């Protein structure tokens, strides 16, 4: 090969290499779909990789939080029901319950000297909130209980006293006589973020203390559970995927720092066992309700005095109300003499913030208002035709005043009372009344032989048609009252005298 041929080969090789490098840079090494020319990610990328937050996640250690929570969470067992020997229903006809449970059994129960009714036992959890023995749990854990037993993590047992309940939020306060107990500090449930780690601590399935971990998967969930026990339910659950089972009710939902952020209340399950999600009452609601029970003996519930479109309203109703998604809570009506009456708010407005905290649903709004009592002043921000407005209002109680509500005398009756539905009243041929849906520990159980399902028509001869009228009638009565009514489906009017004790 001569010099000219050698030079040609070298030249061709150089040109080929240059073309290949240019082609690779231009066509093969293209920018990825998430890269920009300057090496940064596009602004629309839904991620957390940016110049200020590119530190990889650190491992989470739940040991300190578990050590703080476990000694402060207790096992609660209850005894429900007791043997009774008789009642004052007639002996010459069928009992009101024979069709359900069998006539032979209830012939003995109503007409014979003995009963086959045996006490039942239930189990749940609770959280110690003070060193002198105050414990928070769910109302459904202790309702109807004749006896409440608390077992600490160290196996010591105590008999507990019921201090107060609030079916509207499914909370209850009990107390044991002891000092120097471990207790949990309140956190701030408003600060919880989606994806944040939480622990569920309790006594599921009658096991020893159990700790499970999960994340906050949703906030302000409304499930309709408390509506079965109250005409003014409060629901704004924290949803988490921390595993809980029966027995966890009343236990602690704890943040990574060991602070109490919620009281475990329910699970979502078609089988009764854990199936992926559990629900807890936010601690900010817990704090307010428990403080009310301690200070006043009953919950001081504040109301805005409005009706609003619930987030689970059917599409037909949303269309009827001309609802626009994402603006806030749509006001349907402003109650006359309510807290918002005269504030400027009107139907068609969208409430966006309560005291500066954003609300996007009715349950979020209820959660915020539940933290206040009648007489408290709050700011309410709302939209009207796209324009923002702010007003300051003083919250009122349900009766439309700023007064502190004292424990109603009717609470001493020891029964769950419900206003008789108008449709049902028509079917029964009465103008109205109050249904005694469940009899718990109290004056009715102690002094009468009344059974569940009794419909109260009169108190001391005064006709009543609602729970509110019942409370008023009792408040105006002397120390002795006469409850008069009937059992649906059965003949006869029955009277039950009760002495009101201090």
- Estimated share of beta-strand residues: 25-35%
* Alpha-beta classification: alpha+beta
Computed CA radius of gyration, to the nearest angstrom: 31 Å
Distance between the termini: 123 Å
Q: Can you name the CATH architecture of the largest domain? A: Beta Barrel
CATH-assigned fold name of the largest domain: Thrombin, subunit H
Main sheet summary: 6 strands, antiparallel, barrel
List the helices and strands and how they pair.
Elements (H helix, E strand, L loop, with lengths): L2 H26 L34 H7 L3 E8 L17 H4 L1 H9 L8 E9 L5 E5 H4 L2 E7 L5 E10 L4 E5 L21 E6 L7 E12 L15 E4 L11 E3 L5 E9 L8 E6 H13 L10 E3 L6 H6 L8 E6 L15 E5 L2 E2 L3 H8 L7 E8 L2 E8 L20 E5 L2 H7 L5 E6 L3 H5 L7 E5 L2 E2 L3 H9 L4 E7 L7 E6 L3
How would you characterize this protein structure?
The protein has about 500 residues and is of the alpha+beta class. It folds into three domains: about 60-80 and about 120-300, Thrombin, subunit H, CATH 2.40.10.120; about 305-395, PDZ domain (Pdz3 Domain), CATH 2.30.42.10; about 410-500, Pdz3 Domain (Roll). The protein has helices spanning about 5-30, 65-70, 100, 105-110, 140, 285-295, 315-320, 360-370, 420-430, 445, 465-475, and strands spanning about 75-80, 120-130, 135-140, 145-150, 155-165, 170-175, 195-200, 210-220, 235-240, 250-255, 260-270, 275-280, 305-310, 330-335, 350-355, 355-360, 375-385, 385-395, 415-420, 435-440, 455-460, 460-465, 480-485, 495-500. It has a six-stranded antiparallel beta barrel. A six-stranded antiparallel barrel has the order 7-8-9-12-11-10. Strands 13, 14, 15, 16, 17 and 18 form a six-stranded antiparallel sheet that branches. A hairpin with a 5-residue loop joins strand 10 (about 250-255) and strand 11 (about 260-270). The longest helix is centred in the N-terminal third of the chain and has 26 residues, at about 5-30. The chain starts with a helix and ends with a strand.
């Amino acid at each position: 090969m001569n010099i000219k041929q050698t030079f040609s080969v070298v030249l061709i090789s150089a040109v080929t290499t240059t073309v290949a490098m240019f082609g690779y840079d231009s066509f093969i090494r293209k920018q990825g779909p998430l890269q920009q020319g300057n090496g940064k990610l596009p602004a629309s990328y839904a991620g957390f990789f940016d110049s200020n937050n590119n530190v990889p996640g650190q491992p989470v250690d739940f040991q300190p939080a578990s050590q703080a929570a476990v000694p402060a969470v207790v096992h609660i067992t209850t005894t429900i029901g007791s043997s009774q020997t008789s009642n004052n229903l007639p002996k010459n006809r069928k009992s009101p319950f024979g069709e359900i449970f069998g006539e032979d059994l209830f012939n003995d129960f109503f007409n014979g000297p003995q009963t086959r009714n045996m006490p039942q036992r239930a189990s749940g959890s609770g959280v110690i909130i003070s060193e002198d023995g105050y414990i928070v749990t769910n109302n459904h854990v202790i309702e109807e209980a004749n006896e409440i037993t608390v077992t600490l993590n160290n196996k010591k047992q105590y008999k507990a006293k019921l201090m107060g309940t609030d079916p509207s939020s499914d909370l209850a306060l009990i107390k044991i006589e002891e000092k120097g107990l471990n207790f949990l500090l309140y956190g701030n449930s408003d600060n919880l973020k989606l994806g944040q780690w939480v622990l569920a601590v309790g006594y599921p399935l009658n096991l020893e203390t159990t700790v499970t971990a999960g994340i906050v998967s949703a906030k302000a969930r409304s499930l309709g559970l408390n509506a079965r026990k109250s005409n003014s339910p409060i629901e704004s659950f924290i949803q988490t995927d921390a595993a809980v089972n029966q027995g966890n009710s009343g236990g602690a939902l704890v943040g990574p720092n060991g602070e109490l952020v919620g009281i475990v209340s329910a699970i979502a399950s078609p089988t009764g066992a854990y199936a992926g999600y559990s629900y807890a009452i936010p601690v900010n609601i817990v704090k307010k309700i428990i403080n009310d029970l301690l200070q006043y003996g009953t919950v001081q519930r504040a109301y805005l005095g409005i009706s609003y479109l619930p987030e689970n309203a059917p599409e037909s109703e949303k269309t009827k109300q001309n609802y626009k998604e994402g603006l806030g809570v749509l006001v349907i009506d402003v109650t006359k003499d309510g807290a918002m009456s005269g504030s400027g708010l009107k139907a068609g407005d969208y409430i966006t913030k309560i005291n500066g905290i954003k609300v996007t649903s009715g349950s979020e709004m209820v959660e915020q208002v539940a933290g206040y009592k009648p007489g408290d002043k709050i700011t309410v921000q709302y939209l009207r035709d796209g324009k923002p407005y702010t007003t300051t209002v003083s919250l009122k109680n349900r009766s439309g005043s700023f007064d502190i509500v004292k424990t109603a005398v009717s609470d001493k009756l020891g029964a769950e009372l419900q206003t008789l539905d108008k449709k049902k009243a028509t079917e029964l041929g009465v103008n109205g009344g109050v249904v005694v849906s469940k009899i718990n520990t109290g004056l009715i159980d102690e002094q009468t032989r009344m059974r569940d399902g009794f419909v109260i028509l009169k108190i001391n001869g005064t006709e009543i048609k609602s729970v509110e009228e019942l409370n008023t009638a009792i408040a105006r009565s002397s120390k002795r009252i006469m409850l008069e009514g009937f059992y649906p489906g059965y003949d006869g009017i029955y009277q039950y005298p009760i002495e009101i004790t201090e």
